[in-house]
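User: Reviewer 2 asked us to show a designed sequence for the structure in our supplementary figure. I'm pasting the structure tokens here. Could you produce the per-position amino acids so we can include them in the response letter?
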């Protein structure tokens, strides 16, 4: 398949790979010579066109983009057996209950596919599938001022640092406090969740209102199943890896 970096700029995209020169794929201007090279090759044949132009797309925007991509592919002088429209379906970390509208997107794709019955349309969703399947759980080591210092950090879960956001979380209170000194805690305040690394960049959530957070509590980061552990600076300064638990439902 030829990956093509088509010049479409979807509105509201969080990350746009297409539409400007980049390391991803051929420019539109390169496509005729690539097709000519394939036509002459005895070993290679064109299987299709591959695109992945942006991420953070709401369903209506993803559909408009898909229509533009299909339009372009159909204008090529060759038949395109397969067309990959890419991923990039939005995940809203600020509003976790706001899900990508798969029903709208699916029926829209169904309509589009009627315009090109001999072309298989493919999508390659990443985070919109897996983000909701993972949780990152760690312990509060200490609470001071409005900081809760976690046993984990961005070396185990880099999503918030990579996206520069406050990652959604829940505090799970733990009743036991086995130490003879007073339990550090913050009540009815705004907490910043810091990891245990020696860098001020090790922040997982900032200034979030909480009713109570205490040393020894668990913090559960939801929506941790995409670009979390896999993009983390694992074993940073020889800190440990997290353990992994797979739940059967
Ligand atoms: C080629 C390609 N396809 C699909 C995806 C998935 O993107 P997302 O997780 O935004 O759906 C990526 C992510 O980088 C990608 O590079």
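Assistant: Here is a per-position design you can include in the supplement:
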């Amino acid at each position: 398949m030829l990956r093509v970096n088509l010049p479409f700029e979807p509105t509201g995209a969080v990350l746009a790979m297409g539409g400007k020169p980049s390391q991803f794929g051929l420019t539109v201007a390169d496509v005729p010579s690539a097709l000519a090279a394939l036509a002459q090759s005895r070993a290679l044949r064109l299987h299709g066109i591959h695109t992945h132009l942006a991420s953070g797309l709401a369903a209506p925007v993803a559909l408009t983009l898909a229509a533009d991509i299909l339009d372009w592919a159909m204008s090529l002088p060759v038949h395109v057996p397969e067309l990959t429209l890419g991923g990039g379906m939005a995940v809203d970390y600020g509003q976790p209950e706001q899900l990508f509208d798969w029903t709208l997107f699916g029926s829209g794709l169904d309509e589009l596919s009627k315009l090109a019955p001999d072309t298989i349309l493919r999508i390659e969703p990443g985070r919109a599938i897996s983000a909701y399947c993972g949780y990152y759980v760690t312990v509060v080591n200490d609470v001071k001022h409005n900081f809760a210092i976690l046993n984990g950090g961005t070396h185990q879960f880099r999503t918030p640092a990579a996206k520069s956001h406050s990652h959604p979380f829940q505090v799970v209170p733990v009743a036991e406090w086995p130490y003879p000194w007073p339990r550090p805690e913050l009540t009815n305040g705004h907490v910043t969740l810091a990891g245990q690394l020696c860098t001020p960049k090790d922040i997982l959530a900032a200034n979030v209102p909480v009713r109570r957070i205490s040393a020894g509590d668990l913090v559960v980061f939801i929506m941790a199943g995409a670009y979390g552990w896999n993009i983390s600076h694992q074993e940073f300064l020889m800190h440990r890896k997290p353990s992994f638990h797979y739940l059967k439902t």
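For the response letter, you might also mention the following. The mean pLDDT is 95. The helical segments are 31-40, 59-74, 102-115, 127-130, 159-163.
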